[in-house]
Write a structure and sequence with these properties.
single chain, 270 residues, alpha+beta, Arc Repressor Mutant, subunit A, Beta-Lactamase, two-stranded antiparallel ribbon, 10 helices, globular
Length: 270
């Protein structure tokens, strides 16, 4: 029988998840490398790796394990079951075409935010014009480091914000990242006043992002719509007026479409 953890969880399950995450973080790994990364016995790592491989969650090539495509099926299922996903994707695509910048939609789960869908800047395909950072579907972020996280946090009461901070901390990713809870609360006040969140090179140096929440008909938050670009381009009137105006218009339009949709497809409890 698998031993439990202090919080009532199952230790063996946690180890299997740690194994998958280690394989991903290492970009593929052999049994010994996984064991060393997690500080477990090689025999323990081997059992978990073989079980995960047998179930299709890992694959092995030339003695090295990699994350399996079965996760792709699960991830796509989780993504497309999000309320009115097709409406969200359409809004992201339209805003990307209008602003000619990177656009994404992030949602909160368990105190962090995840990229649900995105639309790349049309120039990103040219290597010499790349900004140096690209969003990937399913990317996970600490809420205090990104504009979408701040926009969503700004809808929370202070006690809920502090709960998120207590759980995940305020790790610094750049020199500009907010690492003090009082400074974060002040930033969230400014977010409410502006009507959108701003990440000014706080997640990646050289990248600026603004984000506005999208509300459900019942007043709850569906997620946050964001526009990102290089700091040199996201500046002046572009940052202070042009992009915010386009972002607000897109968010309000999406909210109108949500209000007109079948209520059964809009519920977060679906």
């Amino acid at each position: 029988m698998s031993r439990g953890t202090a919080d009532g969880g199952i230790k063996a399950t946690e180890t299997s998840i740690d194994v998958v995450e280690a394989v991903k973080a290492l970009g593929g790994a052999r049994t010994t490398e996984v064991a060393d990364e997690l500080g477990v016995a090689k025999s323990t790592a081997h059992k978990h790796l073989k079980t995960l491989e047998r179930r299709g969650y890992l694959t092995r090539s030339a003695g090295e394990y990699h994350v399996g495509l079965r996760f792709l099926n699960l991830g796509e299922f989780a993504r497309t079951r999000w309320p009115c996903y097709s409406l969200v994707q359409e809004a992201v695509t339209d805003l990307g075409e209008r602003t000619e910048e990177d656009v994404d939609f992030c949602v909160e789960e368990n105190g962090r935010v995840y990229t649900l869908c995105e639309a790349y800047h049309k120039w990103e395909k040219y290597h010499e014009a790349q900004s140096g950072y690209r969003v990937n579907i399913g990317d996970c972020y600490y809420m205090h480091t990104v504009a979408s996280g701040k926009a969503i946090l700004a809808t929370y009461p202070e006690a809920a914000v502090r709960e998120v901070v207590d759980r995940w901390g305020l790790p610094a990713l750049t020199e500009r990242t907010i690492t003090d809870v009082e400074a974060l609360l002040a930033d969230l006040d400014r977010t409410r006043e502006r009507g959108y969140g701003l990440s000014d090179e706080e997640y990646v140096e050289g990248l600026r992002t603004i984000s506005r929440t999208v509300s459900l008909p019942d007043g709850g938050v569906l997620g946050a719509l964001s526009v990102s670009g290089p700091a040199y381009r996201m500046a002046g009137a572009v940052l202070e007026q042009e992009i915010p105006d386009a972002l607000v218009a897109a968010a309000e339009s999406l909210e109108e479409h949500l209000a007109a949709a079948d209520p059964a497809t809009v519920s977060r409890d679906g």
